Amino acid sequence: MQRHNKKFVWVLMSLIVISLWLTACGSNKTNEADNEGAANAPASTEAPAERTLTDALGNEVTVPANPRRIIASYLEDHLVALGIKPVAQWSVPNGIQDYLQEELAGIPTIAFDLPFEAVTSFDPDLIIMAYDSNVEGDKFAQYSKIAPTFTLGDKVTADWRSALLKVGEIVGKSEEAQKALDAFDSKAKEAKEKIQGTAAGESAAAIWHLQGNFYIVSDKLSSGALLYNDLGLAVPEVVKIVSATGTGNWNQISLEKLAELDADHIFLINSDSEADSKALNDPIWEGITAVKNGKVYTYPSTSSWLYAGTIAYSQVIDDVLESIVK
């Protein structure tokens, strides 16, 4: 009897040991599976959140996390530089920004003054305005009913670099904006070195011919800043004089005053048809030094000379190099 009891106890203890071993194995497999699952689980990423930004006029604007239907009239150069296609593009009765059409082909147009009904029809999720006047009076409130509306303001828009960086901040692409600027600056630096190597000390002026009138670029604004600052071309005395009293990017100048222009090179943006360009056959025009020397390079109004941004000015650099360096 005692012998049977011992045998029973041994069998019982063996069963307990086996049971504990199986339990331990099961537990280990469960832990291994849990650990493996945790290791293979995708890392949690925090989705971009909407942000509240203060625009140039002091308005607090809640910007969507990933705006996809943007209207930024006359700021399209910056959008394209950031890899963004707007839902509608700026236009005037006589045209659009032709130099951007490789990137904006097929994008519908919207009138430059952004009629409320037209803006609404595009169902934007973000509106970026360039100038204070775009939202004067009760316009801001009306646009804001359509979509969040952010105004860059006159000061920022006047400085195309600041405008690009601000647009980048608004749409959550600050890094891309800085990269676009860096790439442009690198191109401008290389172009300046080429110009200084073949045309050091030579001067240039950009002239816009429109409806029979002449306008000369400011020495510190628009493509003038590019010619004289970024590319290192010398500023003619006439350009300095007109710029000192002018208030715009392009300031009107009489043909008689142009006769005093001592530029080595002239970049002529001609917005008139051949029939309307009688002034370009005037003896006074033909007597200008650069004209007599065959140093006038003509571009249509569809070129990028009248606009601003990394894309516009990159094309202007190409024009200058082709004309002066060759």
What does this entry show, briefly?
The protein is of the alpha/beta class.
* CATH topology category name of the largest domain: Rossmann fold
* Parts with pLDDT < 50 across at least 5 consecutive residues: 1-45
* Annotated CATH architecture of the largest domain: 3-Layer(aba) Sandwich
Describe the largest sheet. 5 strands, mixed
**Looking across the biggest beta sheet, what order are the strands in?**
11-10-9-12-13
- Termini, distance in Å? 116 Å
The total number of structural domains is 2
CATH class of the largest domain: Alpha Beta
Order of helices and strands: HEEEHEEHEHEHEHHHEEHHEHEHHEH
Shape annotation: globular
The CATH homologous superfamily of the largest domain is named: Nitrogenase molybdenum iron protein domain
Description:
The protein has 326 residues and is α/β, with parallel strands linked by helices. It has 14 helices and 13 strands. α7 runs antiparallel to α8 and α8 runs parallel beside α14.
Fold topology:
Elements: H1 2-40, E1 51-54, E2 60-63, E3 70-71, H2 76-81, E4 89-92, E5 95-96, H3 101-104, E6 109-111, H4 116-121, E7 126-129, H5 139-146, E8 149-151, H6 154-158, H7 160-170, H8 174-199, E9 204-210, E10 213-217, H9 222-230, H10 237-245, E11 250-253, H11 255-258, E12 265-270, H12 283-286, H13 289-292, E13 296-300, H14 310-325
Parallel strand pairs: 3-7, 4-6, 7-8, 9-12, 12-13
Antiparallel strand pairs: 1-2, 4-5, 9-10, 10-11
Helix pairs in contact: 7-8, 8-14
